[in-house]
UniProtKB/TrEMBL annotation:
Keywords: Methyltransferase, Transferase. GO terms for biological process: methylation. GO terms for molecular function: S-adenosylmethionine-dependent methyltransferase activity. Residues 51-88 form the Methyltransferase type domain. Residues 90-118 are annotated as: Disordered. Residues 90-104 have a biased composition (Basic and acidic residues). This is SAM-dependent methyltransferase. The keyword Transmembrane helix does not apply. It comes from Streptomyces griseoloalbus.
Amino acid sequence: MRQHLPRTGAVLPVDPRARARDWSEIQERMLVPLYEAVYERLDVGSATRLLGLGCGSGLALLMAASRGATVTGVDTSADRLALARERLLPGERDERPPRGEREGGAGTGTRIVHGSPGAAAPADAPAYTVVTAFEPIGCLAGDAEGLGELLAEATPLAARGAAVVLAGWGPPERCATASVLRVATKLAEPLSTEGTWRPTDRDDLERVAARAGLRPDGSGRVACPFGYADVDSAVRGLTSTGLFDPAIAATDQVQVDKELAEALHPYQRQDGTVWMPNVFRYVIARTP
């Protein structure tokens, strides 16, 4: 659920730091069951060298590091990476290096990289044993192609037979949030159909793995309910994903917030909390 930028050329009236904070404090934790299921299945531990693609503000990396893994995170959002640095390298200065420059803590083994996966491994570093792409695909038009480009850069950095984990949204009928995401498409059309919500295809993940030359080695489904303290928190959390950016570009933030809040009403409980059951899929593939 990375912050996807609109392709219309419009400049969104958003505060990127506030949005990154909303992601870190509200939305990122919704996928914790997915992270836990994958790490348990792969027995992630002290022998693991993990590369996290689209690592965001670093919660999944922190969970892997707590199991003893050596972790590297890569993302293109400097604001989210600043939060990842606070979590994983709290003693380091809060600097924002130029795109592609590497960051890290001396002696910790933890590295945070702003830019592309190609900058994620020094020439003399051991190969990665696990590569994760936890940002779910199967939600936006074109997201599978974007993941394929990341894998093309990342898989040469992995050891032979390393596990590559791809994640995606489950079937729309099992994801309550799908009905809310349709608001983004409704508001973005007819100005733009690129980067907007689309129904999930059952074989999205398998196709991406096959195109990347990876060997399938299992899959699973995990319940990841989206729960929020109130409608305002739900709106902030969902818009922090960037999935509503095309709608904001086509209309405005106020209109999107209003219609998103209305779409959330069926999922609001009597105590004001919002609860949306969802199922996410993951595929484990192996490098040649």
